[in-house]
Amino acid sequence: MTELSIVHGGPLTSEPYLGPLTISGFVREVTDRFGESEAIVMWAGDERIAWSYADLWQRSVAVAKALIAGGMGRDARIGVLMTNRPEYLASVFGIALAGGVTVSLSTFATPVELEHMLQAGDVAALLYDRQVLRKSFSDMLAELEPAILDTPPGRLASTRFPFLKRLVALDSVTSGPSATPGGAAVESWSDLLAQGRDVPDALVESRAAMTRPSDLGAVFFSSGTTGLPKGIVHAQRAFAIQWWRWRRTMAIDPVNHPVRCWTGNGFFWSGNISQVVGYSLATGGTAVLQPVFDADDALTLIERERVSFAIGRPHQWARLQASDKWPTVDLSSLHYVTYGEKIFEHPTVQTDWQMRPAYGNTETLTINTAVVSNTPADAHSNSYGQPLPGNILKIFDPLTGRPVARGERGEIAIKGPTLMIAYIGKTPEETFDEEGYFCTGDGGYVDEEGYLYWEGRLTDMIKTGGANVSPVEVDEALAAIPGIKRAQTVGIPHETLGEMVVACVIPHAGEQLSQEGICTALRQRLASFKIPRAILFLTEEEFPVTGSEKVKTSDLRDLASKRLEGVKVTV
């Protein structure tokens, strides 16, 4: 009898290192374990700001008290619009301690996107940076809601944002012209905290104790390449499970290789707050925060703070390589590096740690399948791993909705304890299938042993000459070629092939790359039908990306098509 592509990850209780399964329970646990150890570091100019775990707890409690004093009840939606800074984490933990729900808002948001997220998120209070670089959120909010300019603090009554009552601004920790105060309705961070001084600790403890793993935890907004962001609601346990499990899946050794985890990516992305907190705080390590990514500053910070764990993406590592500081910087402290092939090329980096593939998305608050880091390559055969404890994976035919046999390609569907509760504004029937699975829109297959082979978005798959080509696979091969700063593969309509594989490449400054040289390198890793028929060299300015650096594939496809009009391509 043919075995179907339905794979169970085993019971959640089989996941080691699990602690309390609420956000407040997590921060209480790590505080009890690691008290006076350094939890968070950030440099603001020449000032080094460092909090211990005890400091983080106290400051989180202060946020909780202030929100309670302001009348915040259970499940109140509190918006957090900040760059990477210690107050971000204090806000997330403080909101949870008070019984509220964090609504994470992107600092890349345009006025239209911010308006949508405040409305869709039912934000009752907004904690925000006055300014990030040259973007003034005070000015943006005043433009969206002029009543901010003359309404008393805490008494905002807006028909545009009918649930929004409070605005609390923090002074900027990034460079740029000084932001305007923002209007009479805006409170300062110190004024907010002062309001909670008379709230007893016992009240905070009581609220935290009444929080259940299934309660609402936070809302994230997807960073899509088209349309307005989708609101994704997660339960408390989704955060805690992922925070605790990173130690195992990333093979973290807190004794011999303690984590000092650097990131220059925003906490408003679910993957980043999941990973940074899980890698560092869950293991007794330190989160080293860079408010916004800058290659020169990142190299200085990694060297100065003896960072051992660096979280980034290939395009960021390419920018580090292009920095004038690259030849002289000391990166010898690095042990764990995500997607780090380019970092491992630095002469001072020597580590035997190897990241392995994992598959996940915002809807599952990062990973739901994984290969444990350091696993021998031949043990997972380039797969994305098996479902993690508590998860179930299904591959189905999107036309019939039925599960396919092992080895057959189809759409990936998932369910488990870190799966979102809902999309904002969508019914369960619109969000999940009849069995409760979330249908991801991603394509792939599972083998006889239940390992997942992810092949990218079904809508992005390239059908060339009757064969399927995964852009993800080609992009990973391109990223390993010296001199390539960024690459994205797309399919372009072709009269005989159906679609033609085309790679769009940004070279490092001063690099002389050729199509022939790139294709020669790719032939060492890819089957012949996967080799791009054309390679287009673009500048950073020409590459269409969102504010969060996600490639707009439809725009890139259009650009490639126009570039190739009238050009004869050998097939």
What does this structure look like?
By secondary structure, the protein is of the alpha/beta class. Among the domains are: 6-12 and 361-457, Luciferase, Domain 3 (Luciferase, domain 3, Roll); 46-234, Rossmann fold (3-Layer(aba) Sandwich); 462-563, ANL, C-terminal domain (GMP Synthetase, Chain A, domain 3). The chain has 15 helices and 29 strands. It has an eight-stranded mixed β-sheet with strand order 10-9-6-4-5-11-12-22, with helices on both faces. It has a six-stranded mixed β-sheet with strand order 3-2-14-13-15-16. The longest helix is centred in the first third of the chain and has 17 residues, at 53-69. It is globular and about 75 Å long. The model has no long low-confidence stretch (mean pLDDT 92).
Structure at a glance:
It contains 15 helices and 29 strands. By secondary structure, the chain is of the alpha/beta class. A hairpin with a 2-residue loop joins strand 2 and strand 3.
